[in-house]
Amino acid sequence: MIQPVRLRTEYLVDPLGIDTSAPRLSWWLEADAGETAQSAYEIEVASTADGEAPLWASGRVAGSDQSHIEYAGRPLQSRESCRWRVRVWDEDGRPSPWSEPAHWEMGLLAPSDWEARWVAHPGATPRRPSLFRREFAVRPDLARARLYASARGTYVANVNGDLVSNAALRPGWTDYPSRIQYQVYDVTSLLTGGLNTVTAVLADGWYSGHVAWLGTDIYGTQPELLFQLELIYADGSRETVASGPGTRAGHGAWLTADILMGESRDGTLDDPAWLQPGFDDRDWVEAGGGRDELGPLVAECSEPVRPIEEVRAVSASPSLADDATVFDLGANIVGRVRLRVAGARGTELTVRHAEMLDAEGGLYVENLRTAKATDTYILNGSPDGETLEPAFTFHGFRYVEVRGLGSSLPADACTAVVLSSAFPAAGGFDCSDPLVNTLQANIVRGMRGNFVDIPTDCPQRDERAGWMGDAQVFVRTATCNGAVAPFFTKWLHDVVGTGGKYGFRDVAPMPLDYDRPGAPGWGDAGVIVPWILYRAYRDTRVLATAFPAMKRWVDGVAAANPDLLWKERRGNDYGDWLAVGEPAPKEVVASAYFARSLELIAQAARVLDKAADAIHYRELADGARAAFRSAYMTDGQMSEPSQTTCVLALHFALVDPAEREAVLDQLLECIAAADGHLSTGFLGVEHLLWVLDVGGRPDVAHELLKKRTFPSWGYSIDQGATTIWERWDGWTQDRGFQDPAMNSFNHYSLGSVGAWLYGRLLGLDLDPDLAGYGNAAICPRPGGDVTWARGWQETMAGRFEVSWRIEGDRFELDIEVPVNATADVRLPFHGPAARVAAGRHHFETAWGHAG
Length: 851
Fold this sequence. Notes:
Blueprint: E1 3-9, E2 16-18, E3 24-30, E4 38-47, E5 53-57, E6 61-62, E7 69-70, E8 81-90, E9 102-106, E10 119-120, E11 130-138, E12 142-152, E13 154-159, E14 162-163, E15 180-186, E16 194-203, H1 205-208, E17 224-233, E18 238-242, E19 248-250, E20 254-258, E21 262-266, E22 285-286, E23 288-289, E24 297-299, E25 305-312, E26 315-318, E27 324-341, E28 348-354, E29 356-357, E30 363-364, E31 374-378, E32 386-388, E33 395-403, E34 414-421, E35 427-431, H2 434-450, E36 451-452, E37 454-455, H3 468-481, H4 485-497, H5 525-537, H6 540-560, H7 586-607, H8 611-632, E38 633-634, E39 637-638, H9 643-651, H10 660-673, H11 682-694, H12 698-706, H13 713-718, E40 731-732, E41 736-737, H14 754-762, E42 764-766, E43 775-778, E44 788-794, E45 799-807, E46 810-817, E47 822-825, E48 834-836, E49 839-846
Parallel strand pairs: 2-9, 15-24, 21-31, 43-47
Antiparallel strand pairs: 1-3, 3-7, 4-5, 4-6, 4-8, 8-9, 10-23, 11-16, 11-19, 12-15, 12-17, 13-14, 13-16, 17-18, 19-22, 20-21, 25-34, 26-27, 27-32, 27-33, 27-34, 28-31, 28-33, 29-30, 35-44, 36-37, 38-39, 40-41, 42-43, 44-45, 45-46, 46-49, 47-48
């Protein structure tokens, strides 16, 4: 029997508060052996607020579609609670039972739905968090309650002393003038009959705190809070408790809180009674009115930042200072530290964070630049000890120094709380080689640490910005490891919204208003990231949303460069950023990316049924390709060969088929000239091993993958790296640390090799012609001394699994294809692929290829 399972609405499980008018519905399928495909589906949607009143019935729809089915019923209303279910028919026309129901709830869709007003603490001082509270009565017949909340800043909300969520840093970082997210919480279970209270702590966050290297007050000078608690009773009546008149404001134990600098709290000022009903707030002040206009509020559309893991310190050692302890967490992580300590009232503790230790064993903090990354606490002197943990900051660190107790602390006094946007894992990979497995673990850890509401370039220094070049080289690897569609969808709103007349900039959100276009490979992220999301998730909506800005981007470059070589209007032009050795000519790199963006826009136009655009950009793409070959190739070879220019020319299909072998030979010569090492930077490294592998030289690809001398992934691992470094030479044995002005030890860009681990070494990849894994391409490429690999990938179609091994003179492959999907399977170095249907499949063949 076939059965729909794991229902999703806009990628999410039972989301509260969405504001799209046509939510998209998706599901997986399970089936008995022998049932492999869906031939039709039927969806029913009902409004639970109206006693299961029907909203939409799709009727029986023929076809295999199981993802992104748009709701097509009557217009949805604010607050509307919807239940939906689906049934399907198998390939023989037999219907399944109805699925278990899933739910979604609409947010507040119109400004008139908001009774709340922005409030601020009229006596607030910069960087000091403010407290807000409001008491209210609840009748006994409460049916449900929803809290809608947002901030210009970051907030933590409670109801009757209980956190409404363990999410952190809400409402998240967006381009505040154009978009401010709000969240919806089901707080029904937190309320009781009688007197209740809703409270919140409000900090500067990205709004008025330190942002990157730019200082403070970038978006505004004072944080503001917005909340609206709606009480719905059994008789259908609704009462609203909202920020505005009647909201009280005060100060508590928080002295300062800043995302970059850290947090300070005075435990002697802490009075938890303020969280509870009945607290005497007569010494507090009436919360001041914030700005009059409600602002551009949008519903949160992705998973929030949450604690995803706790890591206990592996060691504790006395530091250079007699009264300090240095904890080693064993890995470079992102988040905050929870300490369990005891001390006299008024004792001040200083907690510093660092990724590395210096030569003397102290914290290496020079690479943090102006970010203090320091938390301080004044103890309240509790005889039972105290648990200390910040709420409005995060740090990138492996080592933690605690100073002020006058004695050392044991290792179990320190626990790191890892923070990340809480998207589910979507893939896994391991193999027989421990070095490669460590590389994969470092890629995932660095991705988690830098995917904190936006894709940041680094989590530790005074930057943590959404650099677009970094994101575009890594996005394919990200889709292999995580269910990142909502995460990138949220970020792309700011990529598109802050690009202005140029289409795209270098960074999103863009905290500066400056008249400069994006750089090659950075601005192109606005084209490449939506395309990769379409390819991985078959998401045409994200393509359609970005398409007008995509056109502005390439049209602007074309207008400045009528010969279709990207010589003018290159913005900051970072080239192949942080390459080692001879740099690739920037103009060649830029022109290659311009041709690539034109090609992808032509393909996107075809997907979106924009026939005129498809023709126009196909002609431009063909022209740019011809211009590239004419300008930068001579006699079928690159005129100025480098690893990166050869790689881009080959991977972007800028050379003719008859020229590929000659350009590949040039690439091999460049590798040989680098003593068998890579020399690529951010833009070249993603495609390097792919090009070698596809070109018939997997042996060289594996040699580079396994290299342990500088520069290589293995070299950093042998120096103790537990994340991907920003630069190949972040620390070397002969020179020590690189320039601290730019030397992050957690920076995912050079980890873009992860997509090759899945797609070629494991052999689980997208069909080149079909988006969304409806059909997967399974073609393992063993090499080097790897004797087995295994992995999995969760897709819109379901979960694929691949496992292969070499035993003696036999190669064995086991795969599992999800129901309603297929796979083209090609054994290594053997003929054409064979298409298989859903189910488990085993293959064997003789093995004697040198790899």
